[in-house]
Amino acid sequence: MTTWYVLDVPENTAVAVIAAEAPSVTVGRVGPYFEISATGPIVVDRRATGCRHAVWYSCVAGVARDSRITQHDKNALRVEPV
């Protein structure tokens, strides 16, 4: 299971909304975080979120033990199962 966390603040809402558009992705909440999960990779296109670069690069609050970030650049954020 791929899981990553994004702080639930207005600046990051678009990241969770765009991630949830993928049919295999679920978005829930754990404390003050969006919990974004899928059985396979999760890919979010930065341009689709409308996030500025500073918000984009600071949106990741953490990843689950069995997940890792394999791409986090100006184009996309990709989290995959280990």
Radius of gyration over all CA atoms, rounded: 11 Å
CATH topology (level 3) name:
Phenol Hydroxylase P2 Protein
- CATH architectural label: Alpha-Beta Complex
Uncertain segments of ≥5 residues (pLDDT<50)? Answer: none
The spatial strand order of the largest sheet comes to 2-3-1-5
Oligomer: single chain
Order of helices and strands: EHEEEHHEEE
Task: State mean pLDDT (0 to 100 scale).
Answer: 96
Can you tell me the number of structural domains? Answer: 1
Which secondary structure elements does this structure contain, and how are they paired or packed?
Elements: E1 2-7, H1 13-20, E2 26-30, E3 33-38, E4 42-45, H2 46-49, H3 53-58, E5 60-63, E6 67-72, E7 76-81
Antiparallel strand pairs: 1-3, 1-5, 2-3, 4-7, 6-7
Sum this structure up briefly.
The protein has helices spanning 13-20, 46-49, 53-58; strands at residues 2-7, 26-30, 33-38, 42-45, 60-63, 67-72, 76-81.
Structure characterization notes:
The protein is α+β, with helices and mostly antiparallel strands and 82 residues long. Helix content is 22%, strand content 45%. The mean pLDDT is 96. The chain has 3 helices and 7 strands. It has helices at residues 13-20, 46-49, 53-58; strands at 2-7, 26-30, 33-38, 42-45, 60-63, 67-72, 76-81. Strand 6 and strand 7 form a beta hairpin. The protein is globular, with a radius of gyration of 11 Å. The protein has a single domain, classed as Phenol Hydroxylase P2 Protein (Alpha-Beta Complex), CATH 3.90.56. Strands 2-3-1-5 form a 4-stranded antiparallel sheet.
